[in-house]
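Exercise 3.2. Students should predict the tertiary structure of the chain below and write it as structure tokens, then compare their answer with the key that follows.

Predict this chain's 3D structure.
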Amino acid sequence: MRARIHLVSVLTVLALLGACAPAAPTIAPTKPQLAPTAVPIAAPQAPPTVTPAPAVKRGGILKYASNKDTDSWDPIFSGVNEAVSPLAVYETLVRWNLVDEKTGKHDIGPELAESWKFEDPTHLILSLRKGVKFHDGSDFNAEVVKWNLERARDDKKSLAKRLVENVSAVDVVDPYTVKLSLKAPSALTLPDLTRSTGGTGSSGTMMASKAAWEKLGGDSYASKPSGTGPMKFVGWARDDKTTVTRWESYWAKGVDGKPLPYIDGIEGRIIRDKAVILVELRTGTVDASYDAVPQAYESIKANPDLRLWLLPWAASRQMIGFNQDKPPFGGNIRLMQAAQYAVDREALAKTVGFGVGEPLNYGAWIPSWPGYDESLPRYEYNPTKAKQLVREAGFPDGVETELAFQTTTPLADKASEMIERMWNAVGIRTKLWSAETLAFKARNKAGEFQAANWYMSSSPDIAYYNRMYLSDGSANWSNFHDVEVDKCIREGASLIDFDTRDKVYKRCIKLVYETAALQGLYALPYNFVYRKEVKGVREQLIDLDLREVWLDK
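Answer key:
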């Protein structure tokens, strides 16, 4: 049986409306192939027993490479790609913990908030960790949390606005207790407080130093950030290099009883060409990177000095949709159905994913998300049926169309060429149109397309994809609009109980299927690549976490 992509639904967490137990103060490193001890969300418990870990080595500089830099080190203005992960400098109130790598199950656990509870579906109480300092020496407390969340919500240019737009008020109960009042119940309340929100274009709701920001001013702070993370910021040369060093007063301790991190610092370089990054990984001038192209998987796995960690739960999606307001697909459901049945998703996933891709048969849904059910109807590859539907659609001699795609999407050209051949074979004679992302999105938003194939980044919950499915969604690149689908997915995003949400999303999946206008194609897993000397690599769902890294040199 072929492997499938798994990710625990966040509603497993929220359904219990429980409090999370404090994290153990000592963190034991494990190999990335083993799931770290996760803290259950359901009810308060004693800190987990930590299995004795092998001795670690302290010291050394980790050499990291990225092909993209950030625009700002102010977390509400920064994107998700940096020469050094913001998780080195900043922390969030809660975090994702890997529970079971085999299934991709994750739980939300404590970070700067030690515990929490929902008084009711629209009021969340957060109990904060005491004794935490920012790198500038100022205290982390409830007032700082209030300032960070309100700034993320209210600043007109904030990229994190979507993560806190449901928060109507942030109240300081006492110096280490915060109360969030929500406009409406939401499945994303806790996930929105993590770093790994997926596809929101921001670094998440990370906690910045209020004192440092007010002292420096916003413009200067953007290049001189101060967080509570294990690494203190040293310098940033845009599009070149970022340097961070050990924060000696970090609150979490390693297995040796001393404060983390184990390494002395990280030197992050911007290297635009991923092929060059791979060369430097092989020679040892780079220790770690991320998101290697699928074409390189076999060579990485064959190299005894390198390690490839695939994260199938953190998968990017390739989607396809039809303009419902423009010929030939607009108003012609049989032609849209024909185009869907003509696509061999298994072949696409295998070819474009170089053996690790997975077909997306139910829109953007993956198996562990609420609503996923393989008994639901889907568009199986059936060219004979597709040909018949083309004729029934009113085109006995076939039809001409155009398929638009993004040139900046990995392997989108190859996938689009495959779809072109599949459609041509059933009488949907296709020509391709391509452009970089901004031009592609602008053309689609203007409705100047017939069919489109585009990329959606990894997200931890289906509700983060509402912006693709909603008629007025900010990422509605296919001009998809259906009143019943709008109602259904909004209802699913507002529910807390997992079982109820599961039933609602089953209905949503069926509704989306019946429109034939928007479906998934395939998913490609995110990945980390690093040298064998790098130990203790972690993830926060879709992000590299180097807090416990050490170098066996």
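Discussion points: Residues 10-39+59-287+533-551 form a domain with the D-Maltodextrin-Binding Protein; domain 2 fold (CATH 3.40.190.10). The two ends are 40 Å apart (CA to CA).
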